[in-house]
Specification:
Elements: E1 3-4, H1 5-11, H2 17-25, E2 29-31, E3 34-35, E4 42-43, E5 49-51, E6 54-55, E7 64-69, E8 98-99, E9 107-114, H3 117-124, E10 132-139, H4 144-152, E11 166-173, E12 178-185, H5 192-199, E13 204-212, E14 215-216, E15 225-227, H6 230-247
Bound molecules: uracil.
């Protein structure tokens, strides 16, 4: 969020807005290493502000959204080819948001968006094992053996053996030759779900992420988002931090 320098200084508790203006006019304030004496100067959350040589804390408010990404949207903040990106849905939000991980262009479903880089990195780190469940429409009808193979872990073309997963056939349509399969994984390798189904010979035709940890898409339709509640953010932080405490000493 971009704000006037004197407002940021006042919010950070440096001095009243009036007194901050005085400090600026006296040449005692620097933004990113440059002395600033203009009262209209605007600063963003990542600008480094110093008063009399001391850096002030002025962190942008952290915001968290649960987004139902539609198909046909890139999980990025911009696209060279001018295609629709996830941040196009958040133009009314002044903070600079980033997606937590990615869903493929043709995958729909639950994507978290935030400006909290630390939590985003923690959630994306394989160490934290956030469970994600997907609904896949696949070509053909997998056998019980193939579903068991998805559960036990299978070798992908890159040589990686997938971790144990949950897999269940929800519907089969013999006439149209497809099945709907629920797959829950806690890894997040590139194209993992598509690669897992390709490996058992049943390529994905349609893919939707239905849950992320304890979060679901309930109440949203494609293209909509809602802020996470305070309790949900607290729980996400608790989960990754608990896991980091437990696992870090051994890695
Ligand atoms: N796995 C995939 O193959 N694609 C996605 O978008 C997410 C998981």
């Amino acid at each position: 969020m971009v704000q006037r320098l004197q407002k940021v200084m006042a919010t950070a508790g440096i001095a009243s807005r009036r007194a901050s203006e005085k400090l600026i006019l006296e040449g005692r304030v620097q933004v990113n290493g440059q002395v600033v004496t203009e009262l209209g100067t605007k600063v963003a959350g990542d600008d480094i502000i110093k008063v009399d040589g001391q850096t002030i804390e002025h962190q942008e408010e952290k915001v968290y959204f649960l987004f139902y990404k539609p198909r046909g949207v890139i999980s990025a903040v911009k696209d060279d080819k001018g295609r629709k990106v996830v941040t196009d849905y958040f133009t009314e939000i002044s903070q600079r948001l980033y997606p937590v991980g990615r869903l493929d262009y043709d995958t729909s479903g639950l994507l978290l968006m935030t400006n909290d880089g630390q939590l985003a990195n923690e959630l994306m780190h394989p160490r934290y094992h956030v469970e994600k469940s997907y609904l896949a429409k696949v070509k053909g009808i997998p056998t019980n053996e193939q579903i068991k193979a998805l559960r036990a872990g299978i070798k992908l073309p890159d040589g990686h053996k997938t971790a144990r997963a949950k897999a269940k056939i929800l519907k089969i349509d013999k006439k149209k030759d497809f099945a709907l399969v629920s797959l829950t994984i806690h890894e997040g390798r590139y194209h993992q779900v598509k690669n897992m189904f390709a490996a058992i010979g049943h390529p994905v035709q349609k893919l939707k992420r239905e849950t992320y940890g304890f979060l679901t898409l309930d109440g949203l339709t494609a293209g909509q988002f809602r802020p996470l509640t305070f309790a949900e953010v607290k729980e996400l932080k608790k989960q990754v931090r608990q896991k980091s405490n437990r696992i870090l000493p051994f890695t």
